[in-house]
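Here is the promised in-class demo. Please do not try to memorize the tokens; focus on the logic of going from shape to residues.
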């Protein structure tokens, strides 16, 4: 497994430090090291799948990830103001860590998304 694949495994095993926001038996949520919004938390299933399409093979675990994203929003106080849940999938989307994770972004007005502006 490459470093980019195993990084989140090492965070789950507490071998790499992270600011943990919430945890259950199946999911870990921790702050993104390079936040793209005032609130930017990653929600990671402890069992590794490459991307969200592969995670869908275990619908209960996929639901755990989405439920955890909503829990994170609640803990961060952004349920009412709003938030975005993003699964980057493969290279055009900018996926760099190939252990599926939901980005939970909010805490301020978010920009549009889609085609690169540059
Ligand atoms: P993606 O580009 O969708 O694969 O998202 C990977 C995310 O992991 C990026 O937003 C990175 O900033 C974040 N990241 C990389 N290393 C760490 C780390 N050690 N702790 C927390 N977040 C990280």
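The designed amino acids, position by position:
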């Amino acid at each position: 497994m490459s470093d980019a694949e195993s990084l989140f495994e090492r965070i789950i095993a507490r071998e790499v430090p992270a600011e943990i926001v919430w945890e259950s038996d199946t999911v870990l949520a921790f702050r993104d090291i390079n936040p793209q919004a005032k609130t930017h938390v990653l929600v990671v299933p402890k069992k590794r799948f490459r991307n969200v399409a592969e995670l869908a093979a275990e619908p209960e675990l996929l639901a755990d990830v989405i439920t955890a994203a909503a829990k994170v929003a609640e803990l961060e106080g952004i349920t009412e103001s709003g938030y975005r849940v993003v699964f980057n999938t493969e290279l055009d989307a900018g996926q760099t860590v190939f252990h599926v994770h939901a980005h939970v972004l909010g805490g301020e007005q978010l920009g549009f998304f889609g085609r690169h502006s540059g």
